[in-house]
C-alpha cells in the first residue's frame, strides 16, 4: 500500500510518502489510521485529531469506513486551503 | 478545461481564447484569486502552495463537470497555480460563459467555492514567526454547503 | 470608476490597471456582457445601443456608489458602450475587487443587475423583419428586485 | 421646459427633443403626460400605455406625481435594456 502525506501531516510524520504492508486486519481507513498511530511519535502527533485529517483513497475523498487494499494509494492531509 | 500549473496566467488572453469560435455567449464571468499583501492590518509575505498532483487534476475536473451538469455553460476554464507565490500574485482563475448572466455568475461562484473546499491544495504563509500552514476557514465550508442546499431546494421545487 | 464610451475595451488591461497600486485585494470578479450571435436558435444581426448621455453618467455613478456603500470594495470599474455593435462584440464590463471573494461576487452581480434595469440604454436589434427595439425582460426586474429584498433582510438581521 | 424622447418613444413622436411651454396647470409628470397626449397622433401613440413609459426629471428617475417646472429637463423613454 502506498501512503502519501501532505502539508503539516507530512511535516509531523517526517516523510512525504512510503510503501507499507499493514496486517490483514487493516480493512478500512479507520483500521489504517489506528495502525499508523502505533508506528511512532510523529504519526501519533499527526493523527491525534482526526477531525482535521482528510483521507483520499486512489485520489478520491474517502470516509473512515472506506475499505483499503494492498494496491491502494492512500493520502492523508489536512482540510484543503487552495483557491 | 482545466490547467494546474506553476506559471502565471494572462486573464485577458484566457478570456479571449475561451470565447473564440463559440456561439450564443451573452455573459462571461471571471474570478481571479490573488495573494493578499495585507490581512487584518498585517503584512503578508510570500506563500507556497503545495498540492497532490495525481488527485488535483481528477478533483478539479470533477468540480468542473459538476458545474457543467448544473448550469447550461457554453464554456468554462479553471487555472490553479502551485509553488511559491508573492503578495499580489494571481493564484486561481475561473471563467464561465453562458447565454445568460445568471448562469455564468452562479457557476463561477460555485466553482471557486468548491475549489476552496475540495481541491487538494495547501497554503503555507511566510510570517514574522516563520512559515505557517493556513487553517481552513469555516466560512469556506459554509459557502460550499450553500450550493448543496441550493440543489436540495431545487430538487424539491422540481418534484 | 465609470466610463461610457463607443470604443471597445480590453478586459485584461482594465483588470491589471484596476488592481495596480492597491493593497489587500484577495478576489477580483469581472463580468463581460456580449452581443449574442444566436438566440432561441435564430441568428442575430448587429445592434445599436442608444443612450441618454446627460443621465447615463449620473445613473451609472449612482449605481457604483450604491455598490460601494453596500460592500467593502477595494476598487470597481464599470464600462458601458453605446453605438453600433456586431454579434460577439463586448457591450459592458463590470469589475469589482475586494479582500474576500464573497463581497467581490455579490457587488459585481448587483452592479450588472442594476445596470440592466436602471442605466438609460436601449437596444435596437437588426432582424430579418427590420430593426426592432428589444423589450425589457421581467426576469431582469426580478433579478434587480432581489437585491432590494436582500437589503431588507439584512436590515432586519441588523435590527 | 426641455423635453427629450428616446428609443421607440422618440420614433413615434418623430423628434428627439423639443422646447415646450405647457400651461401653468401642468404641475406634475402626470399633468405633463396628459397635456402631451393632446398634441397629436404621434404623442398619443407613444404615450398610450404608461406602464411602459419611464420618466426622468433633470436626469433622475421620477414618479408620476413628481413636480415639473419651466426650467426642467424631462425625458420620456421605454424601460431600459442596456447591460
Mean pLDDT of chain B: 90
Q: How is the quaternary structure best described?
A: heterotetramer
Low-pLDDT parts of chain B are 154-159
The number of helical elements of chain B comes to 4
**Helix percentage of chain A:** 25-40%
Radius of gyration from the alpha-carbon trace of chain A, in angstroms? 12 Å
Structural class of chain B: alpha+beta
Outline type of chain B? globular
Number of strands of chain A: 5
Distance between the termini of chain B: 32 Å
Look at the structure and give the mean pLDDT of chain A. Answer: 97
Strand composition percent of chain A = 15-25%
Indicate the radius of gyration of chain B in whole angstroms: 17 Å
Largest sheet of chain A: 5 strands, mixed
- Low confidence ranges of chain A: none
Q: How many helices of chain A?
A: 3
> Could you spell the SSE succession of chain B in H and E letters?
EHEEEEHEEEHEEH
Number of strands of chain B: 10
Distance between the termini of chain A: 30 Å
What is the helix content of chain B? 40-55%
Concise structural overview:
The complex is a heterotetramer, with 2 copies of chain A (83 residues) and 2 copies of chain B (159 residues). With 83 residues, chain A is α+β, with helices and mostly antiparallel strands.
